[in-house]
Amino acid sequence: MAELIIAPSVLSMDYTKMLEQLRALEASKAEWIHYDVMDGHFVPNLSFGPDILKQFRKSTDMFLDVHLMVTDPEFFAPVFKDAGADMIVFHTEALDNDPVRVKELLDKIHAMGVQAGFSIKPDTPAEPFLHLVEDADMVLVMSVYPGYGGQSFIPEVLSKTRAFAKARDERNPKCRIEIDGGINDKTAKEAKANGVDTLVAGSYVFKRDIVEAVESLC
Ligand code: DX5
Ligand code: ZN
User: Fold this and answer.
1) Which residues are catalytic?
2) Between the CA atoms of 81, 87, 92 and 95, what dihedral angle is there, to the nearest 10 degrees?
């Protein structure tokens, strides 16, 4: 399995202390920043657009993992690539859960020169997409219903992380398995025991000492 990566979600950052918290992330064992894009249609909430991502790009060299919770990822993928994303992850549900369209968008994102991944909500099955580990740099299994930070972890999704991890081991060891939602020191252990190698954590990291919180997830 690949080396563990921690990707704190800046949805939970205190924006009155943005630079201070960014420097704390850089000083921590986190290597990535997870950037949640919500359009008010795909999920019932709004977050940030490409201009704020550009500010992050100017302010840090950390890897920018962009999670698109939008109805039109085919339109927005190039917008966020231009704003500085290193990885673009979109939802299968936004493409009618059609594996052919999912593969096409993965290929299109790769052609832009950035990494590409797809995500599934808690109610979306893994099976139709298992073979796509061959075409993706990452699979993101949501462990809460997307839209808000601070929700409780849904343990039932771990059967899907196991299924994707098995497919990854058989077909493409380089594909990462990421989990997002309700991650804390306890749920991180469960996730890691079920094939996850990339942990997103928002409220858990930003509601306590950032360096210590990240350490406790490793
Ligand atoms: C939820 C977002 C998450 C969110 C996680 O829709 O995709 O990335 O920030 O927040 P926590 O870790 O607080 O559940
Ligand atoms: Zn996210």
Assistant:
1) 36, 180
2) 10
> What residues does ligand 1 touch, defined as CB less than 6 Å away?
9, 11-12, 34, 36, 67, 144, 146-147, 149-151, 180-183, 200-204
Dist. CA 9 → ligand 2 center (Å):
7
Please give the structure tokens belonging to residue 212.
Answer: 């210590």
In order of 96, 170, 216, the CA distances from 91 in angstroms are 9, 23, 29
Order of strands, sheet of 32-38, starting from the edge strand that comes earlier in the sequence: 5-8, 198-201, 176-180, 138-142, 115-120, 87-91, 63-69, 32-38
Q: Look at the pTM and tell me if it is higher than 0.90.
A: yes
Q: What is the pLDDT of residues 120-153, one digit of tens each?
A: 999 999 999 999 999 999 999 999 999 999 999 9
Query: 181 alpha carbon to ligand 1 midpoint, in Å?
Result: 5
